[in-house]
Design goal:
The chain is an all-alpha fold and about 140 residues long. It contains five helices and two strands, in the order αβαβααα. The protein has a two-stranded parallel ribbon. α2 links the parallel β1 and β2. The relative contact order is 0.15.
Length: about 140
Amino acid sequence: MSLNVDKELFEAYAFYAGVVLLKMVVMSFLTARQRFKHHIFISPEDVAGQKGYKTGIHDDIERVRRAHQNDIENIVPFVVLGFLYTFTNPAYSTALLCYRLFVGARILHTIVYLFTIPQPSRALAFFVGIGVNIFLAYKIIVSFM
């Protein structure tokens, strides 16, 4: 079995993996932004000597934090699965569809989560992304059996 990867396929993977990884990094800054906006931090050392700041939990901060946590739980597996998938010699169009679906679903998931758009919008975006990850895992397993 040869583990050669088509250059164009790998470029597509690298681009879309880069997009979702950057999106995940940006979520850290959005969490910090909410903490500064509401003057609420999680650890006492973060507010030591700062007047008007306190520790605790705020709904707006938790919403961004949960969206970020959900990204971590879904994007990290996608980056690994998407990389391994490139070694299965998939059709370029199929791989591109998978990568685009996942990235679009994750961006949409964050938008509907942060702007509190009613369900089932967030669930639909989540299941599209998880469906892609399951598909990639299945194709990897079947290809390397």
